[in-house]
């Protein structure tokens, strides 16, 4: 997404980037690790979850990046109109409760000529295990996301005003500790993975993969578009 949005390989010196639904600050980390701290790029990391904002803030301070992290609900971004040159949401748009409103906010805070970018799961590496582990529990229709096809993506982005919609496929492997992964899932799915469901899921994953590392394959879409 950083390449597709034009921020890499070399960002414009006046780039002001919103890392929208930033989580622990993965995008900012990749960006600053690639372009260095003196590139002139400014990043604002925003997330709804306090724990994520704290983690991103810590990273920013430790690395001396030209960045800040703050609580920011994607449905009501605490930023003025026409502010950012880039508004990037890495695996966030499918988690907001009202994507239409979040898209309107993405548009509003972008400067004319600015770029919006999303990555969206087509088949996330966690979905099959979650369905088996919580068999019988009513889950959202993970496999029916409108973010899977260019046609439905155009139908969502065009009415908001975005143009030049570009959708590219992405396949990647995630490797990590099972305990960290299960904990992270609990942060993402606060409504599903609570109480008995959380225990069931954790027990299933530990039984299947042990308590070491595991690898999962993900397919996703990288989406970019312009605010004219
Ligand atoms: C799958 S994580 C991705 C985090 C990060 N972008 C990354 O690439 O690692 C999704 C993030 O969306 C955040 N989120 C969910 N709803 C949100 C909202 N309404 N406004 C802002 N952030 C939200 C969650 O707190 C979580 O950090």
Automatic annotation (TrEMBL):
InterPro entries: Methyltransf_25, SAM-dependent_MTases_sf. Transmembrane segments: none annotated. Pfam families: Methyltransf_25. Keywords: Methyltransferase, Transferase. Residues 17-114 form the Methyltransferase domain. Gene3D superfamilies: Vaccinia Virus protein VP39. GO terms for biological process: methylation. GO terms for molecular function: methyltransferase activity. This is S-adenosyl-L-methionine-dependent methyltransferase. It comes from Mycena rosella. The lineage of its organism: Eukaryota, Fungi, Dikarya, Basidiomycota, Agaricomycotina.
């Amino acid at each position: 997404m950083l390449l597709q949005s034009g921020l890499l390989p070399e960002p414009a010196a006046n780039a002001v980037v919103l890392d929208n639904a930033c989580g622990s600050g993965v995008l900012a980390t990749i960006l600053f690790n690639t372009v260095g701290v003196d590139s002139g790029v400014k990043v604002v990391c925003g997330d709804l979850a306090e724990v994520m904002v704290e983690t991103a803030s810590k990273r920013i301070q430790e690395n001396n990046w030209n960045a800040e992290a703050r609580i920011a609900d994607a449905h009501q971004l605490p930023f003025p109109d026409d502010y950012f040159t880039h508004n990037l949401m890495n695996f966030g748009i499918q988690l907001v409760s009202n994507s239409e409103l979040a898209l309107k906010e993405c548009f509003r805070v972008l400067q004319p000529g600015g770029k919006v970018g999303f990555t969206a799961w087509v088949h996330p590496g966690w979905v099959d295990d979650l369905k088996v582990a919580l068999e019988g529990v009513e889950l959202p229709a993970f496999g029916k996301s409108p973010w899977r096809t260019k046609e439905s993506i155009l139908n969502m982005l065009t009415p908001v005003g975005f143009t030049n919609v570009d959708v590219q496929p992405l396949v990647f492997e995630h490797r990590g500790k099972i305990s960290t992964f299960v904990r992270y899932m609990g942060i993402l799915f606060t409504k599903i993975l609570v109480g008995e469901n959380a225990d069931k899921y954790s027990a299933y994953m530990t039984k299947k993969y042990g308590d070491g590392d595991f690898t999962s394959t993900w397919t996703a879409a990288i989406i970019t578009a312009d605010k004219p």
